[in-house]
């Protein structure tokens, strides 16, 4: 590389001698960065969505290429987030594409050292049996003075931030119908 090539490749020289005296455009761009394209430019389609992590409801743009999610960014048209996402929302692509994501029911028996895969029907039956047993063991019909209670203190619910309003509404109705009093959601804490 000659001295002239070196000087012409220097960003300050390009800034002062070119049409970009403030150094905000082509003068600041290296040859490598000039060849780069955004991941969103090559996407086949874009779908609008809502971030699943908390109750704020930030808008997201989900970019898809060949049936796979390639990028998730904030939606500038969202009146709530105006294109911004928190660190969890910005990393939400890994929620659906991570190779570490669990897609099977995993169970570790008491005193076991290894996890095992369970059939979904078996896992749901185990959960139902345990909920009913806890409810039966801790059910309170009346208090000491004979006033009706119809409650259990042996069951509680802590909802997650990846649930939407409809799911949280149904969970609240379910746990209330079972007699539970301690019903909370992570997004409120």
UniProtKB/TrEMBL annotation:
Keywords linked to the UniProt accession: 4Fe-4S, Iron, Iron-sulfur, Metal-binding, Oxidoreductase
GO molecular function, one term: electron transfer activity
Signal peptide (from-to): none
Cross-referenced PROSITE patterns: 4FE4S_MOW_BIS_MGD
Domain 4Fe-4S Mo/W bis-MGD-type: 44-100
One annotated GO biological process: anaerobic respiration
Cofactor(s) this protein cannot do without: [4Fe-4S] cluster
Cell location: Cell envelope
Pfam families: Molybdop_Fe4S4
Domain of life: Bacteria
InterPro entries cross-referenced by the UniProt entry: Mopterin_OxRdtase_4Fe-4S_dom (IPR006963)
SMART domains per the UniProt record, alphabetical: Molybdop_Fe4S4
GO cellular component, one term: cell envelope
Sequence similarity: Belongs to the prokaryotic molybdopterin-containing oxidoreductase family.
Protein name per the record: Dehydrogenase
Phylogenetic placement of the source organism: Bacteria, Bacillati, Actinomycetota, Actinomycetes, Micromonosporales
